Every structure is written in C-alpha cells, then in structure tokens.
Amino acid sequence: MGRLLLVIRLAAKDVRRNRAEALLLLVAIAAATTTLTVALALRGVTSAPYAATRAATSGPDVVAAVQQSTLPSQLSGLEHAPGVVASSGPYLIAMPNLVVDGHSDPVMAEGRDPTATSVDQPKLTSGHWVRKGGVVIERSLADLLGLKVGDRVGLDNLVGGGPGPGGGPGSSAGALRAVGPSFEVVGIAVTAALQPSPLNTYAHPSGFPEAGLVWVTRAAAEQLAAITGGAFGYTLNLKLADPSDALTFAAAHQHGGLVLISWQSIAAKEGLIVSIEQTILLTGSWLLGLLALASVALLVGGRMEQQTRRIGLLKAVGATPALVTRVLLAEQLVIALLGAAVGLVIGWLAAPLLTNPGASLVGAPGAPTLDLSTILVVFGAAITVAIVATLAPAVRASRTSTVSALADAARQPRRAGWTIALSSRFPVPILLGMRLASRRRRRAVLSAASLAITVGSLVAVLMFREHANSLDTSGGLGGLFRFSGPGDPLWERGMNVMLVFTFALVLLALVNAVLVTWATVQDARHASAIERALGASPDQVGWALVVAQLLPALPGAILGIPVGVGLYDAVGRHASTLPSAPTLLGVLVATVVVVAVLTAIPARIGARRPVAEILQSETA
Amino acid sequence: MQQEVVLAMLAKEPSHGYELRARLDRALGPLGEAMNAGQIYVTLSRLEKAGLVARDELTDSSDHPDRKVYILTAAGAERVAEWFSEVSWPKPDLAEFHLKLVAAAQGGLADPIAIVDMQRRELLRRLRDAQRAAMTEENKSDAALLLEGIVLRLQADLRWLEACERTWTDRRGKR
Amino acid sequence: MKTSGGTLVACRGLRKDYGTGEGLVRAVDEVELEVARGETLAVMGPSGCGKSTLLHLLGGLDRPTAGELWLNDRRIDELSERSLAQLRRREVGFVFQAFHLMEELTAQENVELPALLAGRTPRQARDRARELLEEVGLADRSRHLPSTLSGGQRQRVAIARALANDPLVVLADEPTGNLDSTATLEVLRLFESLHARGLTLVVVTHDERIAATADRLISMRDGAFVDETRLTGGTSGSLAGLIGLGS
Questions:
Q1: Predicted ipTM of the assembly
Q2: C contacts of A420 (beta carbons < 8 Å)
Q3: What angle do helix axes A19-47 and A276-316 make, rounded to 10 degrees?
Q4: DSSP label at A412?
Q5: Residues A409-440: tens digit of each pLDDT
Q6: DSSP category for residue C233
Q7: What pTM did the predictor assign?
C-alpha cells in the first residue's frame, strides 16, 4: 500500500510540474479517441444499414407487387403459397403528386392500417404512424425534401380541373391547379421493403417508377386513387419459413404481371450504392484519425526525450528501475484514460449529429451505435498508447547508466554534416533554419505528413465542390430527383458534413502545427540564445524558426496535392477533374502563410528576451 | 644552499664547484640567478669540514677553489640516502603574519585590513612575476615545474589572505 | 559621460536588480568603470558578487535596470536587441563559463559560426576558423564534436570562437575555470599575445593567476567595487626567496 501511495505521489508531482505538456497530451489523445469513437459508431451506419433496418422493421423476405388498378387474385393468393408463414397487405398504392413549397413531384402513397403488422412494419424515426389526415414520409424522401413532422403537404392530382377543398400550396405552373387534400406530416419512417435508387433515395423495387414512398390510411389511399384516376398498383409483403428460399420463391411465382423481389436482391443493390454522406463520414473519420495519431506521436515523442532524464533523476535518488517504470506508467495511464474518456463522451455526442440531426441515437436503424465493443476498443487503444509511451524510455533508461541518463538531458540532436556545410552558403536566417530543421528528423517527417494529409483533404474537398458545381442540376423525374447538386437537401447535408470534417481536420492540423512549433521552439531555445550571443539579431533567429518549420511543411503541402487527387479518385464515384492551378496555388500559399504565422508568434515573443536570461536558465 | 642538495648532486659523480653550480642553474631556471655564486663553495667547505665530502687528490691540486674536485665520502653517501627517505617540507610562515595582524589590531598601531591588502598586492606581484617567468619556459621543463609549485603556493597564500580580509572586515563590522 | 579617446568601455551608475519588493536582489550596485583600449582588466570576487552579471551587461547580453553604458564612443544601454546583436557581431566577443558550444557542430564549425553570422563567405569563415584553432592549439581536433573534447579543450574552442570576428573587446567569464595548470598557462599565453596585439580584455575570474597578470585588478563584493589595484612595480623579495633559495 505504501508503495502504491508513493507511486501515486511521484506521478502526481511529475504531472503537476509539467502541466502544459500533460494537458496537451490529454487533448491530443481526446482528439484521437473522439475520431476513433465516431468512426466506430458510424460503422453500423455505413456498413449495413439495410440489415439493421430489416431487423428493426421485420422486413419482408419477398415483396410482391403488380401495376394495375384492380387487385388480382394471384397477388392475394400468394399469402397462402407454400413456404409463406406470414404476410402483410395487399396494400393499395396510389400515385398522387406530393406538393410542397411550390414543387410538385409524383410519389407512391401506400394505404396502411394504423395498427402494426407482423411483416414490414415501417419503423418511425420521429412522429407517429398513419392516422386520418396524416401522412408518414419515408425518411430519405423526407431528407430530400426537407420535411419534418408537423409540416403540411398536399397530395393531389395536378391535372387541370376545378379547385378542390384545401388545395395545396401554390402550384408550380399557372395551368396546373391542386385538386387534392392537404395532409399533415405526422411521422417519418424507414422500411426494408424499398431498394436504394441511384438517385439518393429509396424506391419501390418492383419496377414501379422511381418515386418516393409515403404511407397514408387505407381510406386516404383509396381517396387518392380516386382522384388520380384509379389505383396505381398493389403490393404484398411475405415472410417465408426459410428466408434463404426467397430467391427461388420469387423466381417461381413471377408470372402474369406479378413482380416479386427477394430481400437478397434488395440487399445486393444496397451494397452497390454508398451515399455521399457515408463516404464523407468514413473518409473524414479516417483522415482525422490519422492526423490525431500524428499529434499523439509528436507529443509522445517529445515526452520520451524528457522521460529519459526524469528516469535518471528518479534513479539517482534511489528508485529502483521497477518503481520508476511504475511511476511513468501511472502517469501515462491516467492521462491516456482521461483523454479516452473525454474522447468517448465527445464522440458519443457528435456521432448522431453528423449522421442524422434530429434522430435519436438508440433504436433508430441506420443510426450510429455506441456499444460495449466500441468502449473497449477505445480504452484499449488509449492504454496501448500509454504503455508504448512508457516502455520505450523505460527500456532505454534501464540500459543506460544513471549518470549518462542524467547527462543526456535532452536526446542528442542528430548531426547532418552535409546540411551544415550546405547551409553556410545561404543567408543567415536560412542558414540557421536549415540547421535547426535537421536536428530532429522525425519531427520534420511528422510535420510534413500532417500537412500532406491536410492539404490533400482540402484538395479533395475542392475537387468535389468543383465537380458538383459543374453538374447538370436538372433532370431526373419531374424535378424531384435531381442529380445531387446545390439545392438538393441531401446534397446540402452532405456538404455540411464535409465542411464539419474539413473544419475538424484543419483544426487538428493547426493543433499539430502548434505542437511542432512548440517542440521546435523549446528545442531551439538554447541554440537560438547562443546564436544571438554570437551576433544573430532577434529577427534573424525568428525567421530561422519559420524557415525550420517551412522546410518540411512546404514539401508536405506540395505532396498533399497528389495525395488529395488520389484520395478523391479512391473515394469518389465521379471522374476527377483537377482543381484549377490558381486554386491549388491558393491552397499552397494559404498553408504556407498559416504555418509561417503560427511559428512567427512564439518566435517573436521569445526573441525579445535578453540573451543572458535564456542562457542562465538553460544551464540550470 | 642546503647542504644535502649539494651532497646529493655529488652522488652522481665527483665534480668541480663550478660544474655543480652549472647543474643547479639549469635545474632552477631563472630562479638560479638569485643564487649567490659564492654560496656553493662555502657549503662545500663546510661539508668538507663535516667529513661528508672530501677533496679528490687524484686530480689537479691547485689552490684555486674552482678547480677543486669534490667527492662524496662514505658518511656523505649515507647522509644522502637518509635525506632521500626523509619527508620534511619547507615550513610556511603563516604564524608570523597572523600575529602581525593580531598585534596591529590590539595595539591600535595599524589597520589589519590595510596590512592584509598590502600583503595581498605584494603576493599578487610575485605571482605575476612567477607567471611571466613560467610563460617563457618550455612546458614540462624542470624550471617550469618549479615555477608551477611557486604559483600554486602563492595562490594558496592569496586565498588565505582573502579569508583574512573577510574575517577581519566582519570583525570590524561587528564592533 | 562620453568616452574619451583612450577609453573603450565605460559605465556610470550601472545597476541591475532582480525581483521586486522583499525579494529584490541588487546584482550590480551603482558601478562606475572605465576600461582603456588595449587594457586587460580582471574582476575578482566571491561567488554571487555580481561579476558575471556585470560582464553580461557590458556585452549587451542583458539590460541594466539603471545607469549608462558606453562602448566605443556609443551609448549601448538603450539600444534595441537588433542593434545589440550587431554589436556582438562586430565589436564584442564573449567567452562563457559554461562554454555554450553547439553540441552538434564540430570544433571547426563552432568557430566558423560567428563569421558566418557576420556575413562572411564560407571560405573566409573556414580559413579564419583554422587560423584560430591553430592559435589555441587545437588544429588536430577541429573535426571533433564538443562531447568528445575535454573541458579545457572546449574552453579553448570557446575562446577561439570569441575571436572569430576580430572583436574590439573580449569579455571572458571564468575562462580558466575548468582548466588544469598546463591549459591555464596556454590560455595565459594566448591572452598575452592578444594583449600584445592591442586587444582589450575584461576577465571575470576566481583565478589569481589571471588576475596577477592583468593590467588592472578590481575586487567586487555584493554588486559593488571594493578595491582597485594596479600591480606595478617590483616585489620586495625575490621569487627564489619564497622557496628557500638564495638565503
């Protein structure tokens, strides 16, 4: 017990002495675990939304449908076909126009019972199920049109005719007038009985025209059918004794105008199409994760150098190597676990915001999930980082004698003879900057990598935007399903998410840049003081620091361009067009300027101190 | 000139007085100039009277002291051996100076601190001379080594004088 | 107070305080000093008496709290850091007690650095460095890193470095602090030859040997000068008398 207390006391004292460092490490680990959490939570969203939805809605094994205004007996007869254990329907499908905000587009309106069925009961993500005067909108359609619970829409037939009661909001063209009733959006739901259409929403699989789906009461459906000149068709959901039989079942009963689709076909289609959002989420998380790793590596690397000296000090006052290791481990563990906890909480809060603002986290299919495995992975990762960060210096220290550990106060800077010789040909700031940069190779590499990732992401985003802006924004069915572009709510949401990620990336890149700057400034303090004592002016020394940062940053940024192009090619579905040269140049210049400014500030601050002060403190 | 030194020099081989003088000169470097030329012959005759050296009759027997060749006797050789194994060290004169300061303070005749300062300046001058002499010698020569010893002793004495100054200043302050 | 023709360094009422209120420490207390051109001045005193601080002030490495400081007929206590840097480049050479060599540069590269900082070509810097290393007796160690040199050798590299730009005055803080007798002698010889060439030298030291060979010796205590001596004239007894020679 006594020893445990000792370990805790020593660790606590150590952390208190280096508060800023410990805090930075905590922030970096929190950032890394946040992205790890978000990425893990999203894997449910991106990998198998269909499977989740199917489970949550008791999705059908086979969907049967027919396009005619009367219900054929073959369809209703399927309920009793061999192998069928449950069914729901047949449901009447009308095809009115959905009128909202001056736009009018055809939709499938399926008539349903207010009570739940055992097969294909759409799961509500908000609001309530169908009731008189109410309509439930399928979720992707609701996203597309920006509809929420409580909005009013019109479902009508926009054919020339007399004005009807409660006509929908303004028609899109003078000759067309609304003739149908207005409805209130009472709920938004998802179902597994639809297949993803290439147009970013879900459509009925059975050869119906690609239009979105809404649900109304059976009475309302019949009313709508009446307005639009008859029912469009009927649909029946079947559950089989053996779901894997669905393919053969569908093939066997496909005749006479009946169209049967198995759940496997729907699932296969699902796998082909990944929405913009999911792509962005996945890629963004990976990039963020990489950058956060870079931060942690920078910080841990920086601390490792100091650890060697701390170990030496502890050993010199009599601590055994085992005790020393325990103290270090305790320190690192606490910071890592705290950081992981913070990251988990932030990630847990952030994930649903990114995928579906407004939807609840738990229970909604296709929503991000935070389960035990995620928590375990995140904490496991944090603990691994802590151990790695402790092991390396501990091993090294146990191999070196106490004296040399103490004397090796900072790890000896690497020497590159050729850099030193080469640098003497340049003006003073560049001379000093080159020498400074070559002292710590690994940090330079990390800095370059971090910038390459950042610039690459920015380039990919720019390429995406340029592609989007150049797209034809009309087309698709009646204007409802436009190709994704500006004005499309789904598109807008996708771009927002991308912006969020870009913002987070840039922020993390800034954090990395600050870290590298901080480490470089610390490192350079003694050398800069000597150089100033020998006659270098504070400006020259300040510029040297900037040069030292820019030397790895510039190639990193330039490298970012092909990285960005490669990223876009790998992830995007569209042909890539390089952003214009001025744009690229703009990104490069902006990056360089930001790095320069970030360095210049601490450099200037440090340069005003009298030299003697710095030198005294460096020898202490 | 210490008698034992001359005896020991004769141990190598019988020599004339002036040979001995030359060897001493070389060993002492610039400090050898301080040595009184005649001293050596006085020492030699004393040693002869004490029976530690004898005149070598085999060589020229003129009466000129320069030309006399001296040789160790058996008693002389014994004395040399004894001397090599002795460990006495030339005594420093601290007691005298210390008492000088005390007397000055007690009698009120002079300021002890002023005395210390004067002595310090004197020793510094000697140090300067010794150091200058050392700079002209070759490294590691006999003379250089000797001068090194002088320099170090002067340094030690100077440190003591600084201590005296501090203590006597403190004493004055307390009164 | 302007410096007259023969004075290179001068200060008046020079003061340096650290801390405030109860914790105020007056490191340098109203010091008045004039150093003539070509003079070797030694400042001695116990540790903590402020002699290193004084040296830092003279070299523009630190700013005085009060007082005037003159170097080469120019007032320097109110110069900007940039101007002070130029000063150090052209007129002042500094030798630190802790050497402060760049650990990742060889001896040669260390000595080259001030010349490069002053804008010389790499070749000029290299030649000058070789020359200086020769003078301090380290020509055969020019490719060594400081970590592989002894304390005395490092000290000599530091001295060579201070001379790189042919300064008007060299300020040395305990230049023989880590040296044995032989090395000290060599440094003394070096200083002597520099003195002969007209270099002004201000040395802060514990070592009486250096103090004894200086033109002027100042003792410092608690931030103020307490004594000033010129060791002119001969000595009362001979050196030989000290060691029992010459009766």
A1: 0.87
A2: 104-105, 109
A3: 150
A4: P
A5: 445 666 778 888 888 889 999 999 999 888 87
A6: S
A7: 0.68
